[in-house]
Each structure stands twice: as C-alpha cells, then as structure tokens.
Amino acid sequence: MTATARQPQPGVPRAHEAAGLSMEFDLAGEPAAARRALAGLAPGGSVVGLGAPLVAAMGGHVAGLESFAAIGTGPVFPGTQRACWTFVSAADPSAAFDEARRLAGALAPALSMVESTILFRYRNDRELLGYRDGLANPPAGPEALAAAIVAEGPVAGGSFAVTQRYLYAPGAFHRLPPAGRDAVIGRDNATDEELDDAPDTAHVKRTEQEHFAPGGTMLRHSMPWGDARRHGLQFIGFSAQPNLARRMLERMAGLEDGIVDALLDHVVAETGGYYFCPPLLDGKLDLSGLGLPPA
Ligand code: HEM
C-alpha cells in the first residue's frame, strides 16, 4: 500500500451534527498496548487525536506538536494535556452514546477515560451566549481541507487539533445592552455581520485569521455542553499548522499586544490540550508518520 492511499480522518472536515461527546484519555498501561489499540482503531466518522506525551511515550515524534502549556497569568488558559482525545459527533444522542462506548472500549485498558463531556447543537449552530459560531470557517471542500489538513511531509493527511472546555459565567454578559454584547464578540447578533467598528478587544479582532496569515485559517467545530446550571462551549479547532492555536490563544490572552479578549470576562477555560489527528490507511489510524520504533 502506498502513502497515496492515506486519507484524512473524515470527522475532521465533516460539519458536526446534533449530538456529540468529547472524551480525553490518560495512558494507563504499557505504551506498546496503546500503540496496538490505536493502530487497530477505525475512527469511522469520529476524530481521534494523540497528545505529545503519548507520542513520546511510544517512542515517536511529530514535528511541531506541543503539550498544552498554561498561557497567561492566572493562568488565563490552563493546560490539561492528556494522552489522547476523541470527538464524537452523531445525528442523535443514542448514536453518539453508542459510538463513544465503541471508541472507549477499543482504547481500554491501555488508555483510560478521564474526561467525558456531552455536547449538543444549540439552535442554528449558536454557542450559548446566543451567537452564531463557525461563520468565518473556510467553506466545506478544498478550502476546509487546505486549512485543516497537513498537505505534505511525514504527517501529510493529519491535522493539528486544539480543544478546551469553557465554562460560561454569562450573568454580566446578559446584563449588557445588545450593542455591548455585540462589541464583545465583534458581530451583530441579529444579522451575523461583522461590526465595522468592532473594538480591538472584540473576540473576532483578537482571532482574525488574516492576522495569522499565511496558514492562519482554522476549521472550528466547537459545540455547546452542559445544563441550565453549568454550561459552556467545548472549543474544537483543526489546523494544518501545529502552532496556530497557541498563537491565537496568546493573542486572546493579551500576550502579543497587551489587549485581552473581552470574551474572557464571561467565559473561563477549564481544560486545554493539543492533539495530532493521524491520517487513515484502509480506514484505520496510520501511525507510520510518527517515527515510531519497530513494533
Ligand atoms: C468560549 C469560547 C469561545 C466562544 C464563545 C467563541 C465564539 C466565537 C464567535 C461567536 C465567533 C464569530 C463567528 C465566527 O466566525 O465563528 C468566533 C470567531 C472566531 N473564533 Fe471564537 N470563540 C471562543 C473561543 C475561541 C478560541 C479559543 C479560538 C482560538 C484558539 C477561537 C478562534 C476563533 C476564530 C479564528 C474566529 C474567526 C475570526 C475571523 O473572523 O477571522 N475562538 N468565535
């Protein structure tokens, strides 16, 4: 089989569906057992990502893949890097649950689950402050693939993912007048249009993809989580560039120019990890680009 048969994981470019789960795993057994479990795994429509600690434990290396180190003071963004992350998205909660059980079963006992967050689609792809999320995503097809999938080199067909679970503290946000809320995001909630006069603190000004060019486009598939008491957003982004997410987070935290993202007055990151999503060969995870020693 040649390298040309490698395919990106279909779950990376695929638009998320109505129900989902984000699961994180720690290494619980021998790295060789984790390697065997991963190499035999067919992710189907789900996404499977490997953290730098797991790649290193298996004796491999992915150029540019970092462990998530805390960003900012406080810190603004905590690092809770895990060995492995999976993202399930399915048409309904039953299908998502069954798929999550399948993946967790295939990874056990070498990888044990330490985080599991039920995700859902809210209204017309709005996050729970009420704003449409994903509007500036590259269109599905070649542009989305170019943004999210590594084009060449040993890990071609793979993708670099970032995921963070944000808890919302939306009381103050909802007390703002509509124009004040729009200024936090930088988009008009009623029309979805970007504000011409968005302040420098607006979220879309902090993350504007032109600023990170070339290769500054991220494919985001974030989904809401939680209930009426505790809720927020599982931020999920894919990029062909290993460090794009960190650069965006540093700019949100004000490390670049001292200007902090206004969104951070209303949301708190509880977790944060970076993961490499290997390509598939014959439908199974292809670990050949990780430079692993002979099995
Ligand atoms: C709770 C956390 C977050 C919320 C509620 C949120 C929400 C939003 C919303 C409503 C938009 C405008 C519509 C759109 O283009 O999608 C947006 C844009 C964007 N966000 Fe976030 N976001 C969050 C975290 C992040 C993080 C952590 C990153 C990067 C690591 C990020 C990257 C982006 C990018 C790249 C854009 C498009 C900017 C552009 O117009 O070029 N977001 N976000």
Specify the number of helices.
8
Radius of gyration: 19 Å
Biggest sheet features: 6 strands, antiparallel
Number of strands: 12
The percent of residues in helical segments reads 10-25%
Q: Which CATH class is shown? A: Alpha Beta
Ends distance: 18 Å
Give the SSE order as H and E letters. Answer: EHEHEHEHEHHHEEEHEEEE
Average pLDDT number: 96
Strand content: 15-25%
What is the 3D shape?
Answer: globular
CATH topology: Alpha-Beta Plaits
* Domain module tally: 1
Ligands and ions found: protoporphyrin IX containing FE
CATH architectural type? 2-Layer Sandwich
Low-confidence stretches: none
Derived from helix and strand composition plus strand pairing, the structural class reads: alpha+beta
How does this model look, in words?
By secondary structure, the protein is of the alpha+beta class. It has helices at 31-39, 52-57, 93-107, 142-148, 171-175, 178-185, 203-206, 244-252, and strands at 19-27, 47-50, 84-90, 111-120, 159-168, 219-220, 223-226, 231-239, 267-269, 273-277, 280-281, 284-285. The strands form three sheets. Strands 5, 6, 7, 8, 9 and 10 form a six-stranded antiparallel sheet that branches. The chain has a four-stranded antiparallel sheet with strand order 2-3-1-4. A hairpin with a 4-residue loop joins strand 7 and strand 8. Protoporphyrin IX containing FE binds at residues 127, 129, 131-136, 162, 164, 166, 185, 187, 203-204, 207-209, 218, 233, 235, 237, 245, 248-249, 263, 267.
